[in-house]
Amino acid sequence: MDSLTHVELLWLEKRIENWIRFGHAAQEQILDRKRRVLSFAPGSIFAFVRWSANDFGTVVSRIDIVRAVAPGQRCTTVPFVRPGGDILLRLSGWSKVEQVLQIVDAVEALGVDPADAAPDYWHHVHNRLSVNEVPRGYTRSRHQAWLQRRRTSS
């Protein structure tokens, strides 16, 4: 039984653009020039962005921050993700997606890999979104506390 979570990425310029914003892939399979599959180990966290449009404009803008699950664990289905995952954050609409991408940039600016940030932080990001400002909720001290908690619980 395969223990990895597989994410199918498709890139049809200005039509369908699926990409991984952050995460550490355990494996990559290139299917052709426009399609590839990234696979993630159980417990790893990644951000999956989906955007699609038709002749009249944007149809879907979505970001899912997902924790890959182990075989037999319960999971939520996500399009293009097999078998699914533990959804830490799911938002639709380009303005919200853009704010989350700015939050990811802010976490990286701290010198923290977003894939290593506390999962609880991603659970609550949607509460911090506003129309006019980018929340800066994650801090180095919060990250250090998360790392300490993770070390003591394993």
**Physical arrangement of strands within the biggest beta sheet:** 1-2-5-6-8
Assembly state of the chains shown: single chain
The N- and C-terminal alpha carbons lie at a distance of 25 Å
Q: How many strand segments? A: 8
Total domain units: 1
- The coarse overall form would be globular
Question: What is the CA-atom radius of gyration, in angstroms?
Answer: 16 Å
Low-confidence stretches: none
Beta content? 35-45%
Largest beta-sheet characterization: 5 strands, antiparallel, barrel
Percent of residues in helices: 10-25%
Order of helices and strands: EEEEEEEEHHH
Query: How does the helix and strand content classify structurally?
Result: alpha+beta
Q: How many helix segments?
A: 3
Mean pLDDT: 90
Keywords:
alpha+beta; five-stranded antiparallel beta barrel; 8 strands; 154 residues
How would you explain this protein's 3D organization?
The protein has 154 residues and is an alpha+beta fold. The chain contains three helices and eight strands; from the N terminus they run E-E-E-E-E-E-E-E-H-H-H. Strand 1 and strand 2 form a beta hairpin.
Task: Write a brief caption for the model.
The chain has 3 helices and 8 strands, in the order E-E-E-E-E-E-E-E-H-H-H.
SSE diagram, text form:
Elements: E1 5-12, E2 16-22, E3 27-30, E4 35-40, E5 45-54, E6 57-67, E7 76-78, E8 81-92, H1 94-109, H2 119-124, H3 140-153
Antiparallel strand pairs: 1-2, 1-4, 1-8, 2-5, 3-4, 5-6, 6-8, 7-8
